[in-house]
């Protein structure tokens, strides 16, 4: 392994989950006080600052993915002054706070008429090396929102660094005030032909499905996609705020008898749900599948809000506990109850608001996490003299040792 492992001792934070905290292998690949970009020349950077295209305090990293020797980071255009919205960095870090290199190149971030990237939220890479990037099409969501382009799914070949597909989400599946925010790829055959993409609408509580074979979209709605009212009130490091985000985190379980489960949850919720992917992959079942979406088990408790989650090859789910500065685990072969959940990483400085979490396709696998202090960013409380943003990594096998998630 090329990574230097850093061991963190975690302290328990009050919750309903039963935790047995251990020292875990987790490390920081990159960290930034503020984000900067690799402009073509210093003159280009200065010009971007002068004309308002680059305002450093407004840039926040949101999504993370890894393919081979690169890590990819998204920087959505939530405020004015974000010159690029998707970047690449080397896995082998040469410096602590590198400049972001716009991906595939600057041209894709300066294009007009919806021919390039507008505001990329998150990415999901299939095992064939195609990155599926979710572009909201909206800018300045935290200021005066403007929908410049339709929400769009991009397919990018990471062997050639070329965009090989652009699929705008049809308007009938994007409702007024939709927040198309998260994405997960379900590819099953060796050549990724039987591929579907699942897309979460956090504000209008829907699940959008894309089928690659014929570029078709459809949408599911369900009452389990809604937030819990009491979990919509957050307190984080003295900051109290309210979010009512619905369906957000999604993770795919292992194959069994030709099917696999989709685990999902609202961000403002303490509950986990599950549906068979055979249900959502069949558009004819949209209107008669209400009983197919099921509660998985117990509540995670009053601070059990989770952003992203992912399941590794061993069947262990890892999930970001955003109100606890922590990452949790659950062995998907066990019942979903508090005594079967553990915290595997916790730090109230480096892990303030773990936002995105992905598991790569490498052998062995690595868990990748973005921490970004999002509530502080939203309310203009970011201290530019502090380290605010991190790309972190974790060995999933080492992380679960001596916990209930450890493989038998």
UniProtKB/TrEMBL annotation:
It is found in: Secreted. Keywords: Secreted, Signal. It comes from the Eukaryota. Coiled coil: none annotated. Residues 1-18 form the signal peptide. InterPro entries: 6-blade_b-propeller_TolB-like (IPR011042), MRJP/yellow-related (IPR017996). One of its GO terms (cellular component) is extracellular region. Pfam families: MRJP (PF03022). Belongs to the major royal jelly protein family. This is Yellow-h3. The lineage of its organism: Eukaryota, Metazoa, Ecdysozoa, Arthropoda, Hexapoda.
């Amino acid at each position: 392994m090329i990574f230097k492992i850093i061991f963190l001792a975690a302290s328990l934070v009050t919750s309903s989950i039963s935790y047995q905290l251990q020292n875990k292998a987790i490390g920081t690949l990159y960290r930034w006080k503020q984000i900067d970009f690799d402009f073509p020349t210093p003159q280009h950077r200065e010009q971007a600052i002068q004309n308002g295209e680059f305002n450093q305090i407004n840039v926040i990293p949101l999504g993370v993915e890894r393919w081979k020797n690169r890590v990819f980071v998204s920087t959505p255009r939530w405020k004015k002054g974000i010159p690029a919205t998707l970047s690449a960095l080397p896995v082998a870090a040469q410096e602590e706070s590198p400049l972001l290199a716009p991906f595939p190149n600057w041209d894709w971030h300066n294009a007009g008429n919806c021919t390039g990237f507008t505001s990329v939220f998150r990415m999901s890479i299939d095992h064939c090396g195609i990155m599926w990037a979710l572009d909201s099409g909206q800018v300045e969501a935290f200021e005066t929102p403007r929908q410049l382009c339709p929400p769009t799914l991009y397919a990018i070949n990471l062997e050639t660094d070329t965009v090989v597909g652009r699929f705008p989400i049809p308007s009938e599946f994007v409702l007024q005030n939709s927040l198309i925010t998260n994405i997960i790829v379900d590819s099953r055959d060796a050549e990724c032909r039987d591929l579907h993409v699942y897309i979460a609408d956090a504000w209008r509580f829907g699940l959008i499905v894309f089928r690659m074979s014929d570029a078709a979209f459809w949408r599911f709605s369900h009452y389990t996609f809604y937030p819990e009212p009491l979990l919509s009130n957050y307190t984080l490091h003295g900051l109290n705020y309210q979010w009512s985000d619905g369906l957000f985190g999604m993770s795919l379980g292992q194959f069994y008898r030709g099917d696999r489960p989709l685990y999902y949850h609202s961000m403002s919720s303490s509950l986990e749900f599950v549906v068979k992917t055979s249900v959502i992959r069949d558009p004819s079942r949209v209107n008669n599948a209400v009983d197919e979406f099921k509660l998985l088990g117990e509540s995670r408790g009053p601070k059990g809000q989770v952003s992203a989650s992912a399941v590794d090859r061993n069947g262990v789910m890892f999930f970001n506990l955003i109100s606890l500065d922590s990452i949790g685990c659950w062995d998907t072969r066990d019942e979903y109850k508090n005594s079967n959940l553990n915290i595997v990483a916790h730090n109230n400085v480096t892990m303030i608001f773990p936002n995105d979490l992905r598991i790569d396709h490498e052998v062995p696998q690595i868990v990748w996490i973005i921490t970004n202090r999002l509530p502080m960013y939203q309310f203009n409380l970011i201290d530019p003299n502090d380290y605010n943003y991190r790309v972190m990594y974790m060995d999933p096998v080492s992380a679960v040792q001596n916990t209930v998630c450890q493989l038998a």
